Here is the input.
Amino acid sequence: MGEVGLGVIGVGTWGEMHARIYGSFPGARLVAVSDLDEVRGRAVADREGAAYLGDYRELLARADIDAVSVVTPDHTHTGIATDAFAAGKHVLLEKPMAQTVEECEQIIAAAERAGKHLMVDFHNRWNPPFYKAKRAISEGQIGTPQMVSYRLNDQMWVPTDMLKWSARSSVLWFIGSHSIDTVMWMLDDDPVKVYSVARSRVLRAKGVDTPDFYQTTIEFRGGAVATIESCWIVPNNTPNIIDLKCEVIGDEGALYMDCSHHRVLQKYTATEASYPDVLVSPEIYGEVKGFATESIRHFVRCLIDGREPMVTGKDGLRVTRVICAAIESARTGLPVSL
Here is the structure.
């Protein structure tokens, strides 16, 4: 493929990141962006030298756009993604792929009918500590994995202020999807049983009807057990928006990761203490770097080279299947077999 024409549907905080990457990638051109917020959409379009289109269907109708990023709220993914495939576009779909197994299958079928690439943006697969951990596990350096403990939590600011649609999602969809994908990818194993507990007290009292947290246990076919903590009520005065820790215990060794409070850089001012981001998407000489941008760049490289992305719709479906099982388990108090 020659120059790749790209569009971004939804240019909030993360969609703007997609637009920035597309606008600076050699061999690619950001053609247009679409967002329901015209002021925001036009600002991103003007900064990146692209067109602004209020209706995403106008963007999909453009013949000079080969592929699109769909970076909209979770519950809108299915309709937009299937429309994109019907219009003959490749799609980079933000996680979670969709909120039901049936919707995931619908998106995958649309991609197959169109003969186009579908990538789900589980960017933790490009996170250096987790990549190194996966290599260590696959090479047998810690023996056979026995237990995984994975914590990915957000400050309460995320569901109460950052996201206007958090009541139509949950912490399990928003960040738990990353956690589940990362664990399955590191272990290279299939989950067979899911048990989860949730509580809805703190956020509901604040007028946001979504669970405060999920504590999820996953049993894998090979015998490993993973415990995944997904919480949306971390105090806002903590040094980072996210808290990400992981440990993997094998029968011959162990791996420990601190991806949020690693103290590579500590900053203390008159008003706050923080550990600035050096991994996810730091800006260096005006260009966004970090592992979260590498997944987006990978998508473009695959389009240019004509190869399938490393993360596919089947990966997105696996994650949604586990999350749906966790939600059902939390509702009934019973484990769910997969």
